[in-house]
Amino acid sequence: MVIYPAIDIKNGKCVMLRQGRPNDKTIYSNDPLEVGIKWEKEGAEYIHIVDLDSAIYGQDRGNLAIVEEMRRNLTIPIQVGGGIRDIDKISYLLDDIGIDRVILGTLAIKDSKTLYKVARRYPSRIVVSIDAKDELVAIEGWTEKSCIKAVDLCSKIADTGIDTIIYTDISKDGMLEGPNIEFSREIIDKTGLDVIVSGGVTTIDDIRSIAKIGAEGAIIGRALYDGKIEFKKAIQAVKEVL
Length: 242
Known about the structure:
The chain is of the alpha/beta class. The protein has helices at residues 32-41, 52-57, 63-73, 87-97, 106-110, 112-121, 150-159, 181-191, 204-212, 222-225, 231-241, and strands at residues 2-10, 13-18, 21-29, 47-51, 78-81, 101-104, 126-133, 136-139, 144-149, 164-169, 194-198, 217-220. The chain has a single domain (2-241), classed as Alpha-Beta Barrel (TIM Barrel), CATH 3.20.20. The model has no long low-confidence stretch (mean pLDDT 90).
């Protein structure tokens, strides 16, 4: 199981939001690259980046240049999400910048034709983010809640040939209350997908619980920045379970 340190970028800074609310944020660093280097030095195998401005506004507001700089300076793989809603941007990130995986959210729900196309063009480099509240999928940077059940969408994703999803319980995100283990297990059991659990991961026990359900990974944000979880101890906890 991979531990993914999260670097959420807003207005060029490394921040964490509570439940996806843009105005409820904590700034942790003015230099996302510096943060990425820190996690790499501490043993991170993969970096998880979200361009919050692009997710919210649907366009680049300067954060892509930071993502490019991080790709040039980090040696470990990087996955990027946030506002990636067309083939041109997917190609730019994967082919031009050299990002290892892109994370699709709104596009995966609204444009199944494009999803199938990119899944075939970029095998193993497309990850779908399933962001849900009350088990219903949210889209457009979490600003809209759909009537689609998360489990049903996961089953459709599996049919495209995509094998990895990120499941985030929005009600847990940034709240330091623990992840939604039961629903994460349900998705794993019913779909057979590789599931990366996100939202509310707060303690070493949370890490152990995620490992025990057979998740592919866990994304940790606020708990790392607030010092509630030490990154090296999180890695060790996974090794102890597996």
